[in-house]
Amino acid sequence: MSGSLMQGPLLISDLLTHAETFHSHGEIVSRTVEGPIHRYTYKDASQRAKQLANLLESLGVQHGDRVASLAWNGYRHYELYFAVSGMGAIMHTINPRLFPEQIEYILQHAEDKLLCVDLSFLPIVQRLLPQLPHLERIIVLTDDAHMPADAQQTLSKGNHPPICYESELAKHNAEYEWPRFSDDAGAVLCYTSGTTGKPKGVLYSHRSQILHAYASVQPDAMNLSSHSCVLPVVPMFHVSAWGVPYSCTLTGAKMVFPGARMDGAALAELIEDEKADFLLGVPTVWLGLLDYLRQNDKKLHTVQRVVVGGSAAPLAMIKEFQEVHDVFLIHAWGMTEMSPLGTLCTPTARLLSLPLDQRYQYQRKQGRPVFGVALKIVDAKGEALPHDGSTFGRLMVKGPWVIERYYRSDASALENGWFDTGDVATIDPEGYMQIVDRTKDVIKSGGEWISSIELENIAVGHPDVQEACVVGVPHPKWDERPLLLVIAKPNHQPTRESLLQYFEGKVAKWWIPDDAIVVKELPHTATGKLLKISVRETHQKHYL
Fold first, then answer.
1. Distances from the Cα of 139 to the Cαs of 102, 113, 243, in angstroms?
2. Pairing of strands 368-369, 465-475
3. Which fold, 443-538?
4. Contact 12/53 with Cβ under 8 angstroms?
5. d(C-alpha 101, C-alpha 430), whole Å
6. Residue spans per domain, the chain
């Protein structure tokens, strides 16, 4: 017997309609590529999104067509998010930090019809345009005053000249009725960074994005409301900025987009001017912000919580945010295949009641799953392992916003109904999950596992260390042994002996790396993660 309630699709356009109606004065602030600060309201954004939908229809965009973007966090990118998906097409965000060959592959694989691009990324497009037969038009996200003089020559596609976003938008009215269709329809397309092969696409549905937004705003998740002022430093081209544009629109929260400037000084200025209280980004961004604040004797006055994802935040960062700025750092974990939210280490009543040293041990973990996400850890045979906080296992997930198969793949990505994240983790009796390593990065020494992430987190607490990388490299006796590589802080000179001694008493002796090397730089992926495969290849004969 079915329930006797109304049936209707969960559509992304409804988020913006709700915000326009009930949060019409909610602000969206952007530092633009052109320079000035732009500010308007959810009502303004909704009107312009409708104009954009009319513009896209005039260009022949239809239900299911892919519209790509190469753009920073800003109000025009936000308008694309809602206009493209709202009209039934698919918003395809592309990471401009990928190699040009990867961007070319992604555009071809997705068969994008249009490409919308910020001024910063025009050189990438100009280089790749001849290799993109499926692409019909280029839309430059700027106004007439900033349209490049050579655009006609360098950005035309066949007989179609490039389109100036603002001048073309002005030609279309804001009368547009968002279409109704199944919420299982594709809405947003994101590709993985392709560190172990070609990038793979993940196609989110309207339903998955709405459910993800519902889950993310809950008090024990991101705790967002119309009172919040959110600054997402995580890029809108990386897993939809962790879903923040949808979460904020659902609640009417003020949004502050940083644009292309994400250095410590620029972020500190935006935070102070706009009174941001909730920040989201990767550890390297917050290291830069904290360094700027420290050197200039400044404090964060309005910030209450900072979310860290992408890689683990070191204990030193957690302590500095709390003890210097009175800011609670929230570890979050997820991945492209999960839309991306999986777990959050939120400030629960119990956590806040603990002494700081005990609380920090929880804050180092990636937290507990939000409702909708199920977790388990398994051994090599797929057998479930105990949640005792110490047993390592492959981390498996499932839920309504978790991938079932990759875009344009006929094969399921699941293993007995679960998705293998590629992470090795522990889960404690209270449900707190901690990433120990990536499956491919865990160090197997003498038949035992060593967590490279744990060693890196300890190493960056060394007073002379700015960044650390630990990899397992071949060893004649133990199969693999950890090798530590560090980048020194400016005007600091750590020694091999001081680096290795720093681990004593913090981990088992057999975990301590056999050697430490000071390097000038470390390779990173397009999403800012350490590219350990390159480090291992460079140093594979170090112990041999």
1. 21, 11, 24
2. unpaired
3. GMP Synthetase; Chain A, domain 3 (3.30.300)
4. no
5. 45
6. 12-27+43-205, 262-438, 443-538
Q: Helices (DSSP H) in 189-279: which residue ranges?
A: 206-216, 239-242, 244-251, 264-274
Provide the residue type at 57 as one letter.
E
**CA angle, corner 117, sides to 114 and 122, nearest 5?**
115
Tell me the pLDDT band of 88, cut-offs 50, 70 and 90: very high
Evaluate whether 185 touches 206 at the Cβ level (below 8 Å).
yes
Cα(97)–Cα(41) distance, integer angstroms: 30
CATH of 262-438, one of 3.40.50.10420, 3.40.50.150, 3.40.50.300, 3.40.50.12780: 3.40.50.12780
pLDDT in tens, 291-335: 999 999 999 999 999 999 988 888 989 999 999 999 999 999 999
Tell me the pLDDT band of 194, cut-offs 50, 70 and 90: low
**What is the C-alpha to C-alpha distance for residues 29 and 516, in angstroms, rounded to an integer?**
45
Strands 448-450 and 443-445: what pairing? antiparallel
Residues 6+ apart with CB under 8 A from 324: 293, 299
Q: How is residue 275 written in tokens? A: 């009174």
Q: What is the DSSP-derived secondary structure letter of residue 469?
A: E
Assess contact for 335 and 425: CB atoms under 8 A: no
Cα separation, 486 vs 136, in Å, equals: 46
> Residue 195: what pLDDT?
59
Per-residue pLDDT at 158: 86
Q: What's the pLDDT tens digit per position in 415-459? A: 999 999 999 999 999 999 999 888 888 898 887 889 999 899 899
Q: Which CATH number fits domain 12-27+43-205: 3.10.20.90, 3.40.50.12780, 3.40.50.300, 3.30.420.270?
A: 3.40.50.12780
What is the arithmetic mean of pLDDT over 24-36?
A: 97
Average pLDDT in the chain: 95
What residues are annotated to the active site?
A: 192, 337, 444, 449
| 542: its two tokens | 């170090």
Cβ(507)–Cβ(454) below 8 Å: yes
Residues 270/256, Cβ–Cβ less than 8 Å: yes
Residue 225 has φ and ψ, to the nearest 5°, of -155, -175
Structure-token pair, residue 245: 């544009």
Nearest to 51 by CA among 205, 187, 167: 167
pLDDT tens digits, 43-80 = 999 999 999 999 999 999 999 999 999 999 999 999 99
Distance CA 84, CA 63 (A): 9
Question: What residue has token string 């071949």?
Answer: 474
pLDDT confidence tier of residue 527, bands split at 50, 70 and 90: confident
Instruction: Determine the average pLDDT of the residues in 390-414.
Output: 97
Note the Cα 56 to chain centre separation in Å: 27
Buried b (16+ CB within 10 A) or exposed e, 371-403: ebbebbbbeeeeeebebeeeebbbbbbbbebbb
What percentage of the chain exceeds 90 in pLDDT? 88
